[in-house]
Amino acid sequence: LTACLAHNDNTQNYRLYSHPAQRRWFDVVGEFTGLQSLQLPWGYDGCGIPTLAVPLQRLAWAYARFADPSVLSAERADQARFIRQAIAENPHMYGGTGELSTLLVDMLGERLIVKNGAQGVYSGVLPELGFGLALKVDSGDSDAAKVVLGALLEKIAVLSVEQLNVLGDHFRPDILNSRGEVVGRAEPSSAWDQGVLPL
Hints:
three-stranded antiparallel sheet
């Protein structure tokens, strides 16, 4: 709505695919992903806005540009840095109280910004490394996505052992039965990254 007001757009139906505010956003998606955004499949997401189907590799590539915007125009690079700083300074406005994305930003500031998406998606930036990350658990299980994210962050040594322990309930969640009793724990396989990450 703020973008609509800034561009003197009608705020009615701003959520529709054809609305100028959405089209401007699609242009940004295209700039960051290197894809023709209007040629991508799309649908309305859980928030009711049009969402483009971006291949996972291109999503990571887009976040790498967000992490290191030096390849973008000076104006867009400044905007990316401004957004990262705003998120780091206001993590509770970003993900919500108790959310893993909020806890990570609250803990690490701008060093690591991640965001969960629907159906087992996480994406994020590591500005100091110029890295973008994107992961998707095929089943859509959000707990499994957290386990994968934790294993990845442990692999690239972004978090200290103490920080990993603080977030252990997220990265290695207990599995409960119908009585609320712990019957197991979700953990990454010891072979999860063999041949995947050349780090």
